[in-house]
Amino acid sequence: xxxxxxxxxxxxxxxxxxxxxxxxxxxxxxxxxxxxxxxxxxxxxxxxxxxxxxxxxxxxxxxxxxxxxxxxxxxxxxxxxxxxxxxxxxxxxxxxxxxxxxxxxxxxxxxxxxxxxxxxxxxxxxxxxxxxxxxxxxxxxxxxxxxxxxxxxxxxxxxxxxxxxxxxxxxxxxxxxxxxxxxxxxxxxxxxxxxx
Length: 196
Hints:
Largest sheet: 7 strands, antiparallel
Mean pLDDT: 81
Low-confidence stretches: 165-196
Shape: globular
């Protein structure tokens, strides 16, 4: 899945907002974990809504379908404060084409987003070796460009699946991964509908 071009003519790395940087790195780590376990990396989005992180996969027959599904999901995420869209792809570098786990992301009302990646190589035995630090790729489209800040939406304007956490319903289909679960399977972050 690599039919997407992100241009970067600059060597300057911009200051990425802290909350967005956290979700981008979380998505990269999640993707890395999947590949290291031998699983396929199905493109997914991670949406920040209040203090929760909602993960949703976007399988498709081709890259275009995956990107369209992710974009539709994010564009409709009223009340979200940021997102990351993660997928397995490649990057053209001065040293040739490199495999990469790529995460693109943005925040509401901002013109452009950011793309970062973990570059990796696979040896003849199928073992993966990842770069230690994420690399900045360049500006990316921001699927949240047309959205307002989360506080600008009333409770009735926020999609039910993101507001469910406040009502004690299932808040997401996966744990945010940011915390360890206790013996009862709770981490206190609000994932799986648990109260904070």
